[in-house]
Amino acid sequence: MPTEYAQRGLGAEELPPPAALLRAIRETGENQHRHSVLHAARKLVDCHSGRQRALERAHAPGASSAHVAACSQQLEDIDDCRAVWIGRIDAWVAANVRHREGASLHTETLGAVIDRIAAKWVAARHTLGEEITTGPHPAQVGGEAHLQWTRLAELIDGYQDLITDVTEHRRRLPVW
Fold first, then answer.
1. What is 30-92 written as a DSSP string?
2. Are 164 and 1 in contact (CB under 8 A)?
3. Quick one: how far is CA 80 from the chain centroid?
4. pTM higher than 0.90 for the full model?
5. Dihedral angle over CA of 55, 139, 134, 46, nearest 10
6. Of the ranges 9-23, 48-62, 116-130, which is most confident?
């Protein structure tokens, strides 16, 4: 689905469709995502994965206060990195997407939306890992996994609606 872009952009890129976004967050290979938004989305997944691991280490039984403090610093560093990748997505939007004056303003930047999708992807994948390694009651884990994957699907549906509305000039993305 083509989008109109400002002339100052580097090329006629499109807002990535949901399938491309999901493929980017699922695949780990470096340099396979040529679209800058998809590359940033993959980096956000890496950040959220690191965040999940740091939280698990901080909450491990017997973790010393020094270990918890180190994990806390790591979380701050990861969140700073997330902010950079979110900013890169938002900069791409500012440089490439032309919005119609008077179109309804979306409440979040595209970077923030993709960051939430990346976080939910990691949370959903984590529920599958817990099911295999910790072995709690199948109904409990199955329910949690189902809930996380359903929420991810809802976010992807919302992303599709958003890019459709932006493409058709009914909605514009905030650029800060």
1. TT---SHHHHHHHHHHHHHHHHHHHHHHHTSTT--HHHHHHHHHHHHHHHHHHHHHHHHHHHH
2. yes
3. 15
4. no
5. -40
6. 48-62
Residue 96: both structure tokens together:
């490439």
Residue 105 backbone phi and psi in degrees, to 5: -85, 125
Q: Which of 85, 63, 84, 62 is nearest to 72 (CA)?
A: 63
pLDDT at 145 exceeding the cut of 70: yes
CB-based contact 3:15 (threshold 8 Å):
yes
- Asked if residue 21 lies in contact with residue 38, where contact means CB atoms within 8 angstroms, the answer is yes
Cα atoms in the 13 Å half-sphere on the side-chain side of 135: 0
Q: How many residues does the chain have?
A: 176
> Do 145 and 121 contact (CB within 8 A), yes or no?
no
CB-CB contact of 7 with 22 (8 Å): no
CA atoms within 13 A on the CB side of 104: 7
Q: State both tokens at 173.
A: 């993305």
Question: pLDDT confidence of 101, banded at 50, 70, 90?
Answer: confident
